[in-house]
Amino acid sequence: MKAGIGGGGRLVLALAAAGCVRGPDPIRVPGIDPEGIARRAMLAYDKNKDGRLDSDELFACPAFLTALADFDANQDGGLTADEIAARFSDYIKVQPGLEAWVCTVYLDGQPLAGADVTLVPDPVMGDGFPLVHGRTDAAGVAEPRCDGMPVAGLFCGLYRVEVRREVNGKESLPGRYNSRTELGWEIPPGVLRRGEKIWAIRLTSK
């Protein structure tokens, strides 16, 4: 018996012939402006206006703090606009796209299931960076994806990380992990990344 095309199949072929069927839209990668990022970072975080983000000022941007070793070219414990711009110039050289990213959330040393993980682009990155959401499974593992993206992953840059878990309608985690988060990461292109691609978020209840 010959295989045939039903009415739905004929409709698809007709639409395709008419140019009405297309594949998924290409993923639009936000632009990276190294000098713009550096300028915004200094305006936002250089409170004493000395042209350098010192250890106290870096606490206001957890992503810079956790990635300090990768930005701090002269290893003096602070960041200048030139050092920030140089790091993001390296991004451009490798033309980053949507980066696969997996995290495991632990609470008091144990995997935390049912936690909502949100990555909020730091404002210094500029426009075009979407929020990123994920939810941990029974093993505490989340694979976040950008809002509106068809696949998991996120764009490279600086993010504040917020972790929430409601119990009986109330937030069960301390505010330092969500509403007043002290968590942050740089998500670099894969070729600039050190270590594993699975990131650990280690929380404590006290």
Task: Produce a short descriptive summary.
This protein is α+β, with helices and mostly antiparallel strands. Helix content is 24%, strand content 24%.
Question: What key attributes describe this structure?
Answer:
206 residues; alpha+beta; five-stranded antiparallel beta sheet; 24% helix; globular; disordered N terminus
Q: How are the strands of the biggest sheet laid out side by side?
A: 7-5-4-9-12
Q: Helix amount, in percent?
A: 10-25%
For the residues shown, what is the average pLDDT? 87
List the total number of helices.
6
Beta-sheet strand percentage? 15-25%
Q: Structural class given helices, strands, pairing?
A: alpha+beta
Specify the overall morphology.
globular
Main sheet summary? 5 strands, antiparallel
Give the helices and strands, then pairings:
Blueprint: H1 7-17, H2 34-45, H3 55-58, H4 62-66, H5 68-71, H6 81-94, E1 98-99, E2 102-107, E3 110-111, E4 116-121, E5 132-135, E6 141-142, E7 145-146, E8 154-155, E9 157-164, E10 166-167, E11 170-171, E12 183-187, E13 198-203
Helix pairs in contact: 2-6
